[in-house]
Amino acid sequence: MSLACNRSSLGMMAVGAINVVRGSRSSIQELLQIYNHSESVALAVDNPEMFNQIAKPFYLKTSIRFIILLWGEKSSLVNEGNKEVPIYTFMEVIHFGRESRRALFKSHDARQHYMFQTIKSDDIATLVYTSGTTGNPKGVMLTHQNLLHQIKHLSDVVPIEVGDRVLSMLPSWHAYERACEYFIFSRGVEHIYTTVRNLKDDLGRYQPHLMVSVPLVFETLYSGIMKQISTSSLIRKLVALSFIRVSLGYMECKRIYEGKCLTKNQKPPSYLYAMLDWLWARVMAAILYPVHMLANKLVYNKIRSTIGISKAAISGGGSLPSHVDKFFEAIGLNLQNGYGLTETSPVIAARRLGCDVIGSVGYPLKHTEFKVVDSETGEVLPPGSKGILKVRGPQLMKGYYKNPSATNQVIDSDGWLNTGDIGWIAAHNSTGRSRNSGGVIVVEGRAKDTIVLSSGENVEPGELEEAALRSNLIQQIIVIGQDKRRLGAVVVPNKEEILKAAKELLIIDSNSSNVSQEKVTNLIYNELKTWTSGFPFQIGPILLVNDPFTIDNGLMTPTMKVRRDRVMAQYRDQVENLYK
């Protein structure tokens, strides 16, 4: 089905039409809103089941001219609504195209007319409506130039060659997936589509050279590996965990002596201090190296063979937890972290294999500029100072469709886009030389996610959530506390691990299959105290919820980011009761 979607999308752009893309998991109300707001004239629908769900409201509430069925047969369609609207199958459209080309080459006038139907680089290629983690989605106008910039310059980041296999699993309409697809097609390599359900099997079956996905997938892989280790025999478990600890220490030392550690210091340390630090790191790395290599031979080779990714994995579309990042570095799997927005087509920065600075999102892509400004004054801040990230470059959107006020709010007169993210630029890079914006980019979270306590103190919830998710008792969490005296959390517990922990701690009988709400709360609270003990703010009241945040229940975006506003709206009354 992805193939038909891609071919139809490319076909529309090739003839100069603007495609408006959206996933089949979107609600009918959202699809209708986007269709009418974008002033679309036709509908390309995935399959008969999807058509049958949306046919009647689309016939009644839109001025639709025709419909293209990308998959399946018209015999499976329910005949509801206006039968005067023609429906074509994907193969019928291909046939029409062939006939049209034959007619074109027979007619001199038609050829002349066709020659003047040129597509300009600044013409809109597609409208991509934002996922809407907060508020209604806006139509991002991406031009042919925006998309071509990605095709031309992703090669600086992705170590791809003819004959490689690339596995991806994002929605085919998403800006991140589309940019990767177009780049992959332009390089003539094999592209394999998978799903969350089939990921494990497809990794083993296809042994891809590269995989493109979002942080949640790499968190899932990490959790699966750690779970497998924890359920092995006591000796195997102790050996594996000891090896991992040694390798994490070795990699930390290696980053120090290679100059790949992030620093906010605007002034470099004294020469003597730097030399002592370098010498200590070299000595410790030399001591740990033999153990690390033994671990690689006995443990990590097997893990990498199971995962199947031989060159690199590329993470984007969200924040990559540092413990996941460091773990994959320790076991020798290249995990390249990138950064971008729908409004920037989307990639604006990414880590390279030659300079993969853990904790960062790497250097800007070619012809892309970054700066950091003070959130209140707008003053440009020096390297190492934290503020609002702004970006400028040829991949920047044309604006929001039919929404100039929203466009002017995020893009200033000099062409700088306010990303809405808090971050900083490293004061120096691994070579000590300035490059692009002076160093690698570090993103620390969304400015609008910042929680302001009633005391006036600002808290970035992302770091606390990332730390809490290291507990295998916590499946999902969002930190709350806006305008409250202290922080709280909405937590989806991992029921299987909770039951296991309760039995191991003798909280319940070994034959029991239930843990009381009070005991679950105590277990979760103790985990939060353990994993967030190093933070200045501790999490207080906890709301436990049974149902996970998912795409289907509307609490996650199609790219698996939690919709904070919707979670808060759904549990507003219970959250208020927490603070009484």
From TrEMBL:
Which branch of life, at top level? Eukaryota
The protein's name is: Uncharacterized protein
**What's the source species for this entry?**
Trifolium pratense
